[in-house]
Amino acid sequence: MSKREDPRILLLEVKQEADLPKRFYEVYHTHLYCHKGSIKFSFNDQLMECKGGQFLFWFAESRLSGLHFSKNFQAIVLLVEKDFLMNNIPDQSWSINAQLHSRVYPVKTGITIQDKEKILTNFKRLNERFLETGHRFYEEALKLQMQLFILEMWHTFANEYEQRKHSLQTGTLYERFIQLLQRHCMQHREVQFYSNELNITAKYLNHLCKTHSGITASEWIQRHAKERIIILLQNKGLNISEIADEMEFSSRSFFTRYVKKLLGVTPNEYRGRLR
After folding, report:
1. In sequence order, which residues have a C-beta less than 8 Å from that of residue 231 and are 6 or more positions away?
2. Domain that holds residue 104
3. Of the candidates 14, 82, 121, 202, which lies 20 to 30 Å from 22 by C-alpha distance?
């Protein structure tokens, strides 16, 4: 797909993969409500499934592969161009945790009839605003509608997010590790911290993670730290020193070296690539 020609918003009825743009997940953030049937896929090297009555969200450029649609699959899909969505995320402290949560748990279960109606209404309103090109304040209205859409979706899934947070004491050791990671990856980037919290050895924690997900605890920590750093660097209201302080790095230079290791570029170089 040529990025210049990609519409910023697409609302589609989908029954098979051919109904979606080719390699859509490279350009668009995907919001999918499954009416019936199921879709199976590999997400961050884990096999997952979204069934009828469930909601699915994929960030653009996710590690996504192996899509398989059941014969009776039917869904409504809203695609939002990646930069347009990220540039219009409301400046809320809750946003970072919400984003990281969705990068680990893309399938939302327990959707009520009221949730379904709210989701589909939000899809329709954003698409209608996008199509209303004759509006005198088109760009301003569209950006505000995008922000409202995000807030409404956060509201709809806040309970699911909170319930998963509360599973810290009742889940398996692996699930508890993921929950701890979401809470503490800003300040703690060593396996030993998490193994101590779980009262197991670092070696055993790495073994558990490898068994459940195919990657080690250290790789999980790096992934979360990377996601958090990217989100913070995209917030132009924060300077590099403030981000380093928020993540409790001992110095800006140490933070710069860490980012270079994770992203292949320095924080300033990464920001220079942002539009």
Report:
1. 95, 96, 99, 100
2. 3-166
3. 121
The verdict on pTM exceeding 0.85 is no
CB 67 within 8 A of CB 41: yes
E strand residue ranges, the chain: 9-14, 28-36, 38-43, 46-51, 55-58, 64-69, 74-81, 107-108
Q: Any alpha helices (H) in 81-172, and if so which ranges?
A: 82-86, 94-104, 113-131, 138-166
**In a shared domain, residues 155 and 56:** yes
Domain boundary among 166, 196, 229: 166
CATH (domain of 54): 2.60.120
Beta bridge partners of 38: 51
* Total structural domains within the chain: 2
Condensed to tens digits (0 to 9), the pLDDT of residues 213-230 reads: 778 899 889 888 888 888
